[in-house]
Amino acid sequence: MRESTRHPDAAPTKSLTASLSGLLNTPAGRNAKEFFASPVALVASLVLGSVLILAIFAPLISMQNPHDLNSIDIMDARLAPGATGWSDAYYLLGTDSQGRDMLSAILYGLRTSLIVAVTSGAIALAIGISIGLAAAYWGGRVEAILMRIVDIQLSFPAILIALVLLALLGRGIDKVIAALVFVQWAYYARTVRSAAMSELKKEYMEAARCLALSPRVILLSHLLPNSLPPIIVVATMQIASAIAIESTLSFLGLGLPVTEPSLGLLIANGFNVMMSGYYWISIFPGVALLITVISVNLMGDRLRDVLNPRNRR
After folding, report:
1. pTM for the structure as a whole
2. How far is Cα 256 from Cα 58, in angstroms, rounded to an integer?
3. DSSP 8-class letter at 101
4. Closest CA to 51 of 109, 6, 102, 99
5. Which residues does 38 contact at the CB level (< 8 Å), separation at least 6?
6. Considering Cα of 180, then 186, then 190, then 195, what sign does the dihedral take?
7. pLDDT band at 1, cuts 50/70/90?
8. Biggest alpha carbon distance in the chain?
9. CB 94 within 8 A of CB 102
10. What is the pLDDT of residues 5-21, one digit of tens each?
11. Are 256 and 265 spatial neighbours (Cβ–Cβ below 8 Å)?
């Protein structure tokens, strides 16, 4: 009998290829394929991924902990990029007015800014989803009351509300997160309510009601999953907005304390001496902030085009 000459690894390889092909044929797979088809979105994703890796592993990558005053030498203050300090330490991006290594401070600042933005965004998203779904599903007086509260919230500039809250609450990372949650939840609530209202008019929602499903099942198993595309887009945009607002608050001196420098506080530290030739103290954190916000916004724009075909150019 003739022996088979098939390679023993051919079957697992074929199975893996079939699995990947099946994954790409799912709605999520097709959306991901279309998302990364854009060179701009691909580059933005790589940049943001690099920023996240640097922020997560900042304690392992940084040569200095800018939060630890014992590791800072005031004799190394305001050293130019590429200079060597008194302790023979090499500072690639220079040092600030306190003698902190700018590269280490930027990595820790990115870490702090991203933690604040993601945490506040997650809490605000949970609140906004709850309020938006309740307003859309029950309607009537419930919707009128909730949406009027949202309208009042959105009638004030976000930065103004955050400034007032932090002036009352004081400085601290928990205070900044609370202020950003208060600022952001209304955007999520309006988006969720609008998306849910559109879904409630469709036939599958009518069928769910006819089957006498409980409101919890209808809201969480049917209405919310089908309302996710616009929510994902708004969540991405709001993360970029939260990073910018937190940096603005820290720059104005109402955000995080000096012992927990974020990008905004690092920019503020060098603002007064920028014209004296110490440009790197503000410029380098500003560039890091700009790159992070732009990459998130570009990804949000692409997500909007992919998840909402009507907005495609």
Report:
1. 0.83
2. 18
3. B
4. 109
5. 302
6. positive
7. very low
8. 88
9. yes
10. 555 555 555 554 555 55
11. yes
| Helix or strand run (H / E) with residue 55 | helix 39-56
- Which residues are 84's β-sheet partners? 90
Q: Do the beta carbons of residue 266 and residue 105 sit within 8 Å?
A: yes
CA 210 to chain CA centroid, nearest Å: 39
Q: Which domains does the chain have, with CATH numbers?
A: 44-61+94-311 (1.10.3720.10)
Q: In angstroms, rounded to a whole number, what is the distance separating the alpha carbons of residues 237 and 218?
A: 28
In 3-state terms the chain splits into helix, strand, coil percentages (rounded to 5) of 75, 0, 25
Tell me the residue type at 34: E
CA–CA dist 121, 109 (Å, integer): 18
DSSP alpha helix (H) spans, 96-218? 102-138, 140-154, 158-169, 173-200, 203-210, 215-217
Which residue bears the tokens 């919230």?
153
> pLDDT tens digits for 280-290?
888 999 999 99
Is residue 199 within 8 A of residue 223, CB to CB? The reply is: yes
Return the residue matching tokens 């090499």. 90
Is the Cβ–Cβ distance between 99 and 65 less than 8 Å?
no
The helix (run of H) or strand (run of E) holding residue 268 is helix 263-271
